[in-house]
User: What shape does this take?
Amino acid sequence: MGKVAIVTGASYGIGKEIAKQLAKKGWEVALLARGLDKLREVQFEIAKENGVSLALQCDVSNKSSVSEAIGKVKEAFGNIDLLINNAAYVPPLHKFIEGEHSEWEKAIGVNVWGALNMTREILPSMVNNKKGKIIFMGSKAGISPTPQLAVHSGTKHMLEGLVGAIRQEISGNGVSLSIVRPGGVATPGYDHAVHSSAKSDEKPDWIPTKSSSCLDPVVVASQVVNIVDIMDSADITDINIAAVTTPSQ
Assistant: This one.
């Protein structure tokens, strides 16, 4: 069997592109998300390029769903060498005092519990095997408290603390952890957060005003896949990715 990777939130955007690029490099990729139809579309795209993938419906915020999915991955592919904690939910931009609990619960469920559940399920075997890589998709909001993204920013701050602490706990065990912090990325998540909000004209300065000014998911994915390769010979603790700003005419 070849190298085995799990990518969460693999049905579109960054996760989809990471999965496709890993498959092109010979990884056997498990695609996880809640929407199975979309995952199967990604699986078909990978198959057209002679890649190997497995589409599994999974709610990362649900521990039982995660355990079941990971069991199926191990049954199909064997030991897991790489986990990309990519699944995320960004509520529409809003001031904290106007926030809706249902939106906050969804963001915390996916962004925090999703990463916790996946990592807790997979990390022990990596430590036992003394090898493995885990990459967390963070955000600039995770190191820069961001107005109108208070709860989302908080969830990404949680990942920063989580990754830093785990790195210290497993130091010397052969398992590498890294966090990637992209700025605004042209995905359906960006459109949902920005354009479904009445406050979108007041968005934070670092969030592009339109998707055409955002990072391309393909570019972000290529950097993540590059990190995967580099982690064999270097400790990549974190990386920031920002869109190129062009001078105004």
Notes: Helices lie at 13-24, 36-48, 63-77, 101-129, 150-169, 188-195, 217-230.
